Amino acid sequence: MRLFDSKPDIAKMLANGDVEGLTHIVEFGSPYFDDDENTRREAVEALGSLTDQRAIDPLVGALQDENERVRLNAVTALKRHEAFDPLFNALHVKDSRVRQAAAEALGQLGNTRAVLPLIEILDDDDRRVQIAAVGGLAQLGEPSTEPLIRTLQGTNRNARRAAAEALGQLGNPRAFLPLIAALKDQDWHVSFAAACALKRFNDLRSLEPFIEVLKDGPTDVRRVAVEALGQLGNPRAVEPLIHVLYAENSDLRRVAVEALGQLGNPRAVSPLIEALADRYKNVREVAALALGQLGNVQAIEPLIKALDDPYSDVREAAALALGQLGNSRALEPLNEALEDADQRVQKAAAGALQNIKEKSRPPKRTITIA
């Protein structure tokens, strides 16, 4: 508690480099300990601003302050002092927010001494701490790669998951094959993280492993595999993706439709026309857009029919797709869609009509004067 009623002049203490006075404010048990958390927070910030190494010990003590904001400010102050050892120790304190902040600070400081301490907390009980450690290791770059690969091959599933996430962010080619192996991890969280990491690599060598995952992988892993296959752009993926259009999970069907639209292969036209009748509107909507991307005239009549879908999102997508196809058979249905109850559908129909009219205009003749 305060011995005096006046508020401590922290700005003056900072200007005078009064480490001892600032220490007394934040040091629990000191006769000058201030019971106002905002004052203690200001004192911690001041200690962080000083270049005097004597400020480090009171900041370490402030990591145990009863107020979380003071504790977090102490982490920030220790980072300003580049006090690595106290920050390493802070990775193991009781407060998970402090652990998280310490992991973030160590990554930002960029000292490779932090690699192993951050590796050690990849299995932290708090997911936010794991994510902070992943980000810190990614910031530390190349020196993190080999320790992370070893962790990916270890026994702790939380650590394997976090290691896969970090390796995806690092993007080091040495991690590619270990991540391929992790696609078959018994814990779906790990295989999901590995799939997300491999998707970021966008490496054609992942084509067959991702196709294999489509057969019997966990739903979330299959979804990432579908997205990755669309991104890879290889026609080998067309038939496996068509099979996914009949999956029980509607989100899987939706991303498979999107991937087939990306691939642009004519073999997907008929299956995508079938998808226009899917029982879920999100699948029907992306099927219409994908058919517009493919530009095949077989889709004209099914898309015209989709202009009468009960859901406006599907009708809008059908109008947009018909505009892309640019066929005059859609003129009358699109004119009718100008009276749709939904303004977005009206706008899409107007744009589609404009596109079709522009495509049907004869090219301008140019006269060359010799």
> How is the biggest beta sheet arranged?
none
Q: Specify the CATH homologous superfamily of the largest domain.
A: Leucine-rich Repeat Variant
Count of runs of 4 or more consecutive helical residues: 23
Which structural class matches the secondary elements?
mainly alpha
Oligomer: single chain
Textual characterization of the structure:
The protein is mainly α and 370 residues long. It has 4 domains: 1-81, Alpha Horseshoe (Leucine-rich Repeat Variant); 82-197, Leucine-rich Repeat Variant, CATH 1.25.10.10; 202-263, Alpha Horseshoe (Leucine-rich Repeat Variant); 267-356, Alpha Horseshoe (Leucine-rich Repeat Variant). The chain is 66% helix and 0% strand. The protein has helices at residues 10-16, 19-26, 37-49, 56-62, 68-80, 84-90, 96-109, 115-120, 127-140, 145-152, 157-170, 176-182, 188-201, 207-216, 219-232, 238-244, 250-263, 269-275, 281-294, 300-306, 312-325, 331-337, 343-360. Helix 3 (37-49) packs parallel to helix 5 and helix 14 (207-216) runs antiparallel to helix 15. The longest helix is centred in the last third of the chain and has 18 residues, at 343-360. It is elongated. The protein starts with 9 loop residues before the first helix and ends in a 10-residue tail after the last helix. The model has no long low-confidence stretch (mean pLDDT 92).
